[in-house]
UniProtKB/TrEMBL annotation:
Keywords from the UniProt entry: Cell membrane, Membrane, Protein transport, Transmembrane, Transmembrane helix, Transport
GO biological process: protein transport
Xref: Pfam families: ExbD
InterPro entries noted in UniProt: ExbD
Name assigned to this protein: Biopolymer transporter ExbD
Residue spans crossing the bilayer: 20-38
Membrane topology qualifier: Single-pass membrane protein; Single-pass type II membrane protein
GO CC term (a single one): plasma membrane
Gene Ontology molecular-function annotations: transmembrane transporter activity
Domain of life, source organism: Bacteria
Keyword Cell membrane: yes
Native source species: Shewanella gelidii
Gene3D superfamilies assigned to the protein according to its UniProt record, in alphabetical order: 3.30.420.270
Homology family: Belongs to the ExbD/TolR family.
Length: 134
């Protein structure tokens, strides 16, 4: 049997990029889905300083209290009576959530205590108050 001669035009070898792009997009989707995003409280505040301040694992629920007494959760202003309902709603999404209260050092002590009390009423035992290191 005679061999056929190849045509004079050689085909260029090409690399198929489609499988690589599929893997890259799948990895991108995986990292986006598994990343936990931090929800800032949306308040500019000055933390009180404490010599015994420690770093805790990231909390899932942030509550901000400004120096003027404004309470913010999820970047929206919340009335103090609605803190319990909002925390209960967030607990339904993440049952093992911890709460971090970020209060300005000029915030009234009574408001911070009321917020802590309302968080306790919602059923959260893990409550931290944010402070800076001296």
């Amino acid at each position: 049997m005679a061999r056929k001669k190849h045509s004079s035009v050689d085909e260029e070898a090409q690399i198929d990029m489609t499988p690589m792009l599929d893997i890259v997009f799948i990895m991108l989707i995986f990292f986006i889905v598994t990343t936990s995003f931090i929800k800032p409280s949306g308040l500019d505040y000055n933390k009180p300083e404490a010599s015994t301040a420690t770093t805790k694992k990231a909390a899932n629920i942030f509550i901000g209290v400004s120096s003027t007494g404004v309470i913010k959760m999820e970047n929206r202003q919340v009335d103090i009576e609605r803190v319990t309902a909002n925390v209960e709603r967030m607990l339904a999404e993440t049952p093992e959530a911890a709460v971090l209260i970020e209060a300005d050092k000029l915030a009234e002590h009574g408001i911070v205590i009321k917020v802590m009390d309302n968080v306790k009423k919602a059923g959260v035992d893990k409550i931290s108050v944010s402070a800076g290191k001296e």
